[in-house]
Design brief:
With 327 residues, the chain is of the alpha/beta class. Helix content is 39%, strand content 20%. Strands 1, 2, 3, 4, 5, 6, 7, 8, 9 and 10 form a ten-stranded mixed sheet that branches. α2 packs across α9, α6 packs parallel to α7 and α9 crosses α11. It starts with a helix and ends in a 13-residue tail after the last helix.
């Protein structure tokens, strides 16, 4: 009995010393956190809520996703500390860091740091099969083009891209499903999508009326990439029944972001939860197939959070010190 009591006392002593150490390790952690996503029904909302809940469960914290206005607002929310984490595309991130975020012009949002790569958002153009539009240079002057929701990544960058390529157009905005209906009814000439593929509106149009998926030429692709923070992309042939071969396009990377002043150990552990088991992330959303270590280099300008950078560098990345916040 004495032996048992002694063992119990030793165990209690060990537990008593371990608990303060754990408390000390997490002493500067927030008790809860929020991930800024976007509107309901989109990829950001599903993906963001998924990884927020995963991190909360694994780390024993209260956390979840929050509806927001998307990439630009998310940069602002994380920069000001209104949310701990967020999600952004690299174009809005670049503009925000440079002080060109339309939410707060002139404010350099440098307190938002890179956390991990998410996935690519391809840019694609769709026209009706009977329109005669088969390439960018066959889009007629004054074409009515739908660019998606006002202020979205598509609405921000696609008009600039087409202007660069010499296209003259009338700008229209709306939800993707609504724009698809307008295209089918002859109220639009094309739709310029920046969205995960397959785009449901395009798949529906294929069944109902038939479409042309417009690819960029090599020269057009190169000009666009030189002017904007975009990467080369091919829309796989099996994405749409219309395609007989992969379609040349461009895409913008999406990254998770974290407040640069969040505790290093907290962001390290949150990054580890997301990045250590890709199958678990893919179960949350198929787009997470690109949420892998190898894609860390798709961020070429945003400072990394020290905690995220430490995890990546321990797992095969080579993030230089001058790209780490405070480094």
């Amino acid at each position: 009995m004495k032996s048992i009591n002694l063992m119990g006392a030793l165990a209690a002593l060990a537990l008593g010393t371990a608990q303060p150490a754990l408390a000390q390790d997490r002493g500067d952690w927030p008790s809860s956190f929020t991930v800024a996503t976007a509107s309901q029904g989109g990829t950001y909302f599903a993906y963001g809520n998924g990884w927020a809940n995963l991190v909360a469960d694994e780390l024993g914290l209260s956390g979840g996703g929050e509806v927001s206005g998307g990439p630009y607002q998310n940069m602002a929310l994380v920069h000001t500390g209104d949310t701990a984490f967020g999600m952004t595309t690299m174009g809005p991130a670049r503009e925000s860091i440079d002080g060109n975020n339309p939410i707060a012009p002139g404010v350099a949002m440098t307190n938002a740091c890179a956390m991990f790569p998410m996935y690519q958002t391809p840019f694609s153009i769709t026209a009706l099969a009977g329109s005669g539009i088969t390439s960018v240079d066959t889009i007629p002057d004054g074409a009515r083009i739908g660019f998606g929701p006002a202020g979205s990544t598509s609405d921000t960058y696609f008009p600039r891209m087409l202007e660069l390529l010499g296209v003259e157009f009338e700008r229209r905005n709306g939800g993707w499903s609504d724009l698809g209906g307008q295209l089918q009814d002859g109220l639009l000439d094309t739709i310029a999508f920046a969205a995960g593929i397959p785009v449901p509106a395009v798949s529906q149009l294929e069944v109902q009326t038939g479409v042309n998926i417009i690819e960029f030429t090599e020269q057009e692709q190169q000009r666009i990439m030189e002017a904007f923070p975009l990467a080369p992309f091919e829309i796989p042939a099996d994405t749409y029944s219309t395609l007989q071969a992969p379609a040349r396009s461009v895409a913008m990377w999406n990254f998770a972001i974290a407040g640069c002043d969040l505790p290093e150990s907290f962001v390290y552990e949150a990054t580890k939860v997301v990045m250590s088991d890709n199958k678990r992330m893919v179960n949350i959303h198929r787009a997470a197939r690109s949420t892998v270590v190898e894609n860390y280099d798709k961020n070429t300008f945003m400072n990394w959070h020290p905690g995220a950078a430490r995890w990546f560098n321990e797992n095969g990345a080579e993030i230089p010190a001058d790209m780490i916040h405070g480094g």
